[in-house]
């Protein structure tokens, strides 16, 4: 499976509509499976909520790193595989944070640092593709009042700020590349495995 990663420098809001099928093609002309990343605010409108558990909740932040992943390799699409890939992305990002010396915990698809919520995520499927949205706060600003949150720029290890404008793009690219490598490795392992 070939997966294209495109980072968009333009700042724009994630409102939930980007989880719709073929968004990367419609906006950027990307054919096939892809990961599109960008930095921007999140404010998910009620008509774009996909998770029944989120109905009535505010999902917003002034500034987040956004990942939109779309996969066309499973036909018909499979919700279980979409959620497994979502968890894999979350766990890869936690692994990278560990390498930076950042201690985290995970509840489902949510990552926490110092018991404060760092990320949001959703997986969904359409008739044609599986989609994942994964996003990380940059700062603890503009998030819901009833949720203790933290941003990448707020994280300190031994009193030192770990992430800033100078290394953020490297972190984004590293995450996307590792996720793609892992998915390609899985496909390669499957192709070499004898069916019992």
Secondary structure elements and pairings:
Elements (H helix, E strand, L loop, with lengths): L3 E4 L15 H6 L5 E10 L16 E12 L7 H21 L5 E3 L2 E4 L2 E2 L1 E7 L4 E8 L18 E2 L2 E2 L6 H24 L5
Parallel strand pairs: 1-2
Antiparallel strand pairs: 2-3, 3-8, 4-5, 5-6, 7-8, 9-10
Helix pairs in contact: 2-3
Please report which band the strand proportion falls in: under 5%, 5-15%, 15-25%, 25-35%, 35-45% or over 45%: 25-35%
Q: Tell me the radius of gyration.
A: 17 Å
The description of the largest β-sheet is: 5 strands, mixed
What is the overall shape? globular
**Which spans of ≥5 residues are poorly predicted at pLDDT below 50?**
none
Estimated structural class: alpha+beta
Listing every helix as H and every strand as E from the N terminus to the C terminus, the arrangement reads EHEEHEEEEEEEH
Total of helices: 3
Distance between the termini: 24 Å
Strand order of the largest sheet: 1-2-3-8-7
Average pLDDT rating: 92
* Helix residue percentage: 25-40%
* Oligomer type: single chain
Number of strands: 10
Describe the structure.
- The radius of gyration is 17 Å and the shape is globular.
- By secondary structure, the protein is of the alpha+beta class.
- Helix 2 crosses helix 3 (168-191).
- It is built from 3 helices and 10 strands.
């Amino acid at each position: 499976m070939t997966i294209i990663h495109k980072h968009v420098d333009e700042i724009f809001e994630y409102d939930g509509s980007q989880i719709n099928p073929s968004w990367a093609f419609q906006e950027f002309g990307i054919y096939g499976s892809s990961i599109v990343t960008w930095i921007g605010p999140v404010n998910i409108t009620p008509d774009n909520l996909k998770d029944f558990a989120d109905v009535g909740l505010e999902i917003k932040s002034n500034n987040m790193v956004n990942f939109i992943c779309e996969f066309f390799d499973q036909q018909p699409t499979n919700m279980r595989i979409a959620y497994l890939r979502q968890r894999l992305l979350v766990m890869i990002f936690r692994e990278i944070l560990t390498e930076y010396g950042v201690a985290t915990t995970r509840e489902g698809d949510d990552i926490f640092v110092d018991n404060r919520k760092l990320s949001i995520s959703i997986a969904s499927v359409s008739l044609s593709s599986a989609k994942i949205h994964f996003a990380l706060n940059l700062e603890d600003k503009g998030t819901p009042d009833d949720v203790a949150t933290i941003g990448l720029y707020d994280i300190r290890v031994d009193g030192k700020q770990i992430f800033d404008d100078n290394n953020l793009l490297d972190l984004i690219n590293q995450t996307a590349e590792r996720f793609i490598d892992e998915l390609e490795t899985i496909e390669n392992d499957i192709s070499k495995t004898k069916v019992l």
